[in-house]
Design brief:
By secondary structure, this protein is mainly alpha-helical. The protein is built from 20 helices and no strands.
């Protein structure tokens, strides 16, 4: 019997469900390895947040508040979903997050199919998430971000299906789980035009952008329902503690410990000198974020720019945020596969950009390792590395915006 080696085309032509099953098996292998590394190595594989989730689930299982676990600052829904960690097996949450991780990729594939891209292009976009080592590691380490990426993809998919009620419900639930998608509210509102938003007249365009219509009202009401119901249930059971830990904490958070944001060092120095100064810096950072995000909403207000607009807004939000960890990268990385076909650039340029972006992280992680595990004071080196990584991200944002606008103009000219 002749056994033929599998080629790239054979791999690409495999059914999407087969790819999802294979990717899930890889993630299960990483979960098993995580248990081995945690037992035998000094550097643990599992994220510290996973223990926070598990402890919160334990409190919930005993009929107590998950917020009794110090530093649990998430929706009670996450603790509820992880209760099998207590009565079944400890890695259940990692498996659940991995399933959401794979679901994100499947939704990316379905979204791109709705845009009428070729099957090969749709699979390539899905593979950018499905076989991405970063997404695999983060979900198997026990980070819950895959829940959010699935909800974001589901929101976009419901928009494509023109199911305005489900669109709003999915969006409202995503804002309940984590507040950051609220930045997309105005963008989604703009995109629900009765007619195309590509008009050139200033007054007519403003009218199309802001005047309510049936779709916008339906979406708004559904969003409120999707957000208020789970939030009201959480408030009913956990009261002010939930409001403080689940919402207000994230709005006023000032992290002076090292993270990818260069703000950490500035806030650290200002906090030691005058706490009021650090508050002013926090407000200024928020103002810059808001202006840039709003600018993208107006610049790319046509429905044809949905994917790149959401991607750029999220990329800007994470890059200019006061706190930035590797989990936050998934917030915009899940939107990149939807944006990729719109960039109209060669794959080698995408790969080069990803390599530079990754090297920026390596540059930061090196002094961070010496600080965390060797006890060497590398705070200033971490700050310099954060600045370099910040500049890399700003350049990538600018380059992406330029490509998106150029592609959009090119498509418009072809239609004419």
């Amino acid at each position: 019997m002749i056994v033929r080696e599998m080629t790239y085309l054979d791999f690409l032509n495999m059914d999407m469900q087969v790819h999802c099953g294979l990717a899930l098996l890889i993630r299960i292998g990483l979960i098993l390895f995580s248990n081995f590394q945690d037992l035998h190595f000094k550097v643990k594989y599992t994220d510290i947040d996973y223990q926070v989730f598990t402890d919160a689930a334990s409190f919930l299982w005993k009929g107590e508040s998950p917020f009794q676990r110090h530093t649990y600052r998430y929706t009670p829904l996450v603790a509820f979903l992880l209760t099998p960690n207590i009565f079944w097996f400890a890695s259940f949450g990692k498996l659940l997050f991995s399933c959401f991780d794979v679901l994100t990729s499947l939704l990316i594939y379905k979204i791109q199919k709705k845009y009428n891209y070729t099957t090969a292009t749709c699979k390539l976009c899905a593979f950018m998430w499905l076989y991405n080592p970063l997404t695999m590691v983060i979900s198997t380490r026990g980070s819950s971000e895959a829940i959010m990426t699935s909800l974001v993809m589901l929101t976009i998919y419901m928009y494509q299906l023109k199911s305005w009620v489900l669109f709003g419900l999915a969006y409202g639930l995503s804002v309940h789980v984590k507040i950051y998608p609220c930045m997309h509210a105005l963008t989604f509102y703009f995109f629900l035009c009765d007619n195309a938003c590509d008009v050139t007249g200033g007054f007519e365009k403003l009218k199309l952008l802001f005047v309510p219509n049936r779709k916008r009202i339906t979406f708004g009401v559904a969003t409120l329902v999707g957000f208020i119901i789970p939030t009201a249930i959480s408030v009913y059971f956990y009261g002010e503690t939930y409001i403080q830990e689940g919402f207000l904490y994230h709005l006023s958070r000032k992290d002076i410990k090292h993270n990818f944001s260069p703000y950490f060092y500035i806030l650290y120095l200002s906090e030691t000198m005058d706490p009021k100064v650090s508050s002013y810096i926090s407000y200024a950072a928020f103002f810059v974020q808001a202006i840039l995000i709003l600018s993208v909403s107006f610049a790319l207000c046509s429905p044809k720019y949905l994917a790149p607009c959401l991607f750029l807004q999220t990329f800007i939000f994470v890059t200019f945020n006061k706190v930035c960890t590797s989990q936050y990268f998934l917030w915009y990385l899940c939107l990149f596969p939807l944006t990729y076909p719109f960039l109209n650039v060669r794959v080698k340029y995408i790969v080069s950009a990803f390599v530079v972006w990754s090297l920026g992280q390596v540059l930061w992680l090196t002094p961070a390792y010496y600080l965390e595990f060797q006890g060497v004071n590398t705070f200033f080196l971490i700050f310099l590395s954060s600045l370099v990584f910040f500049l890399i991200n700003v350049c990538l944002i600018a380059a992406t915006f330029k490509c998106v606008v150029a592609t959009g103009e090119s498509k418009s000219k072809k239609k004419e």
